[in-house]
Amino acid sequence: MKKIKITYWVITICTLIGFLLSAVNELLQTPKTLAESTQLLGYPAYFLTILGVAKLIGIIVLLIPKFNRLKEWAYAGFTIDCIAAFWSENAVGNPMGSIKSVVVLLFVLLSYYFLRKMQKGMELAS
């Protein structure tokens, strides 16, 4: 059980750091982010604020103990974000962006998998 918990937290923290960096870029609307998201992908600038806030909320939810139902929603949101990023990057012909999205999605799915394993282990211990 201890190995599962450590694995969960290592993968989750790595994943959340990536989403945090992304959220900060989106909220600050750096010139690079604006160029990549609004010009290349065709998103309106205000959409970056929506994404940034949603990512911050998801990060907070995953770091707070309990609230399992909200965690499910956070993982769903991160999964949708990764799929949308993959689709968007693919649509504009950016294969490296598409690959990055798949890697991030794998981290999200691994984090979720180990969360469920940890939760089942706790249920059995009770």
TrEMBL record:
Protein localization: Membrane
Spans through the membrane: 7-25, 45-64, 98-115
UniProt keyword annotations, A-Z: Membrane, Transmembrane, Transmembrane helix
Chief location: membrane
Membrane topology recorded in Swiss-Prot or TrEMBL: Multi-pass membrane protein
Name of the protein in question: DoxX family protein
